[in-house]
Design a protein that fits this description.
By secondary structure, this protein is α/β, with parallel strands linked by helices. Helix content is 54%, strand content 14%. It has a single domain (5-110), classed as Rossmann fold. It has five helices and three strands, in the order ααβαβαβα. It has a three-stranded parallel beta sheet.
């Protein structure tokens, strides 16, 4: 949902950048979904608002954080924390984790 730049821009223009993810989630999310939230600092307001919206919709959450984990670490169901204080290390680690998730989901969809 958030990879479509025209949707992100429209939400940001109409509702503010802090609501760019939570607004989409409110419109498209459903109980039983899984939301992956990524914030190196764990304090990105737009990600925190999406985490709060997910709670209200009873959507399970996984957070990818770095540095101290910020507020996000306590808002998500599962927090995958990279204990580093360097954006490059944190972001590269998150990218590697996302690659593992994508490969796993592909295997699950294809079956044994």
């Amino acid at each position: 949902m958030s990879s479509e730049s025209s949707v992100v821009t429209a939400f940001a223009n109409d509702f503010g950048y802090d609501k760019v993810f939570s607004g989409q989630l409110r419109m498209l999310g459903s109980t039983g979904d899984l939301l992956i939230l990524i914030s190196s600092s764990g304090n990105s307001q737009n990600v925190l608002e999406a985490a709060q919206e997910a709670k209200e919709l009873r959507i399970r959450t996984i957070g990818f954080t770095g540095f101290s984990g910020g507020e996000l670490k306590s808002m998500v169901d599962v927090n995958l924390h990279v204990p580093a204080d360097n954006y490059g290390i944190v972001e590269d680690s998150h990218q590697a984790l996302m690659h593992v998730f994508a490969q796993h989901l592909d295997q699950v969809r294809r079956g044994p």
